[in-house]
Specification:
The chain has about 500 residues and is of the alpha/beta class. The protein is about 45% helix and about 10% strand.
Amino acid sequence: MTSKPTTGPKEPIALVWFRRDLRVNDNSALHSALETGLPVMALYIHDQQGVREIGGASAWWLHHSLHALECELGKLGSTLHIANGSTEDVLKELSTVHKIAEIYMSRSYDSDAALLEQQVHDTFASQQISVRRFAGALLFEPELIHRDNGQPYKVFTPFYKRCMSHLSPGRATATAQDGLWFSSDNPLFVSLDSLGLLPLKPDWSAGIAREWTPGEQGAQERLEEFIERGLINYKLGRDIPAEDGTSMLSPHLHYGEISPRAVWHRIEQAVDDLPHRKEGATAFLRELVWRDFAHYLLHNWPEMVDQRFRPEFNAFPWLENKAQLRAWQRGQTGYPLVDAGMRQLWQTGWMHNRVRMVVASFLVKHLLQHWQHGERWFWDTLVDADQANNTASWQWAAGSGADAAPYFRIFNPTLQSTRFDPQGDYIRCYVPELSALPAKYIHEPHKAPDDVLSEAGVALGETYPHPIVDHKAARERAMAAFRGLPKREK
């Protein structure tokens, strides 16, 4: 794209308000703004007022994602203007200095974001400033997917089928090939570093930095790597935590560095190139629709952030045991697969999806800890922490969510370990104190003979903990709690 940077406070401009759409390609709001022929100002507002404070790992990602966007816009001759504070106040201040003709934004779907969008629209409509909102964060807009009676879906499979009846998401939009840019030195704007998103004392981000490359280019590279290495075997490979079988696109999707519809159509193209990728592609695209479903649920039932989706779980007898919660957070439960997952999370800001289900089940069912304890820990430690996905997944694990598995379906962490990490490769990577144990005992070190433990350098209770709960007893306790709940209304 060629660019013509301009200045002049009284010249009409189009303002693009970047939110969780930190990309240049397939950004309908940016594309449409550039098509107006007006000079375009690119703006990001770091507004933490009245919203949940961003988690530490996500804040690290956001910093680097914004830096990447700065670089991409710089290549086009533009500047990313950054402001810190109330969105309405920032936009009002800018409108007093610059002649804003139109504001362009990408749509968000949680209740706080939707309310803010409406407030911005109402505030500027009276000033004859058009506020235009565009889709792009989801495959299918929530209002388009509903049952025949107009009611929203509560179960994934019929939701998925209705989505598929729409054939496929809309096509991606390219960035305009020519456009004008507007830059300003307004004192309202601040540096990226001044947002304080990076950890400093201490800086715990080294492991995350080794694992990830935030930004649009990193997202594209991750997608292409997945197509080459993981797509064909995705249906089976996604369950093996020691293998590189998942896309790992979730943080890129969360911050809009790549759009789900762009991913969808690139996967379809990959199948056209090599038809034997179809089985893996079908399974993967279904997971993309599951991501939509989480946002769909939160859009239709915003109260599920704080309340159980299934009200009978209001009576569930959760326990409070800070020592056991801390052991779970630190990966010191005595169940190697659980501990490996929790340590992978701490070290890399991410956890394999199969293991996420296991550690979540362990917390809420083996330990009877409230699902919100787990949700809050994930919110702070995941680079892909997402309100919709986090809430829906934790309520699903707890049995209190939409389309949740029956509460009596309790993951046996040892069986999950022997099935999906049979040689213990994943465990050896993240629980190195067990690395010398033979595969026969690495899933249950507490059952290994003393001589085997001694030879492997494992001292139970010292170098590695005994199990903090007995699986059979914990399962029976959870089942008793479940049976005591009020019967679910049909």
